[in-house]
Amino acid sequence: xxxxxxxxxxEYKSLCRALQEGRxxxxxxxxxxxxxxxxxxxxxxSNKAEAAAVERKAMRPRLQLxxxxxxxxxxxxxxxxxxxLPLLRVIAECFEQMEEKDSFFYHLHWKYPTHYAFWRDSxxxxxxxxxxxxxxxxxxxxxxxxSMCNLRKGNSxxxxxxxxxxxxxxxxxxxxxxxxxxxxxxAIPGHHRAWIAAIxxx
Length: 202
Prior knowledge:
The protein has 202 residues and is mainly alpha-helical. The chain is 46% helix and 5% strand.
């Protein structure tokens, strides 16, 4: 199902605004509106899927961002609008700071009960020709995929692309730096610093 960009945009903007302004109750209510909150619990990843996640995490943020922008943050396989994963992570970190971790939970290895929005909404880079088949980690061999489609595809090649309408958008990148700085001040963790540097260079 292709979600119009304004839906995700409104939901996440309301949530991020509440977090930035320290309105905990409003943030908890806002997160309930994000697609997937009432979905089935997220599946645990296999060892192979976790290894693939490490490979994606090792990609330079600047390369990932270039791929996402090339594809307009559309999932290549289902057409779903995707959101920058580091934005979802900092939202989860804000909820953890408020001692409301269960409201928007994220596990580093995507174990249950990671919030379903991470699977449904987060952007990832998928290799068109898998690394196991000699595919290179470069822009020409990468497409944007939601994490759910990326997991389903695994190491297979030649999966069918989404043939419906595509509405490019920005993946809510603009919300990310300010929310990170609101949460962490000057003590920004490394996994956020690299992404902010990539975003602000472009």
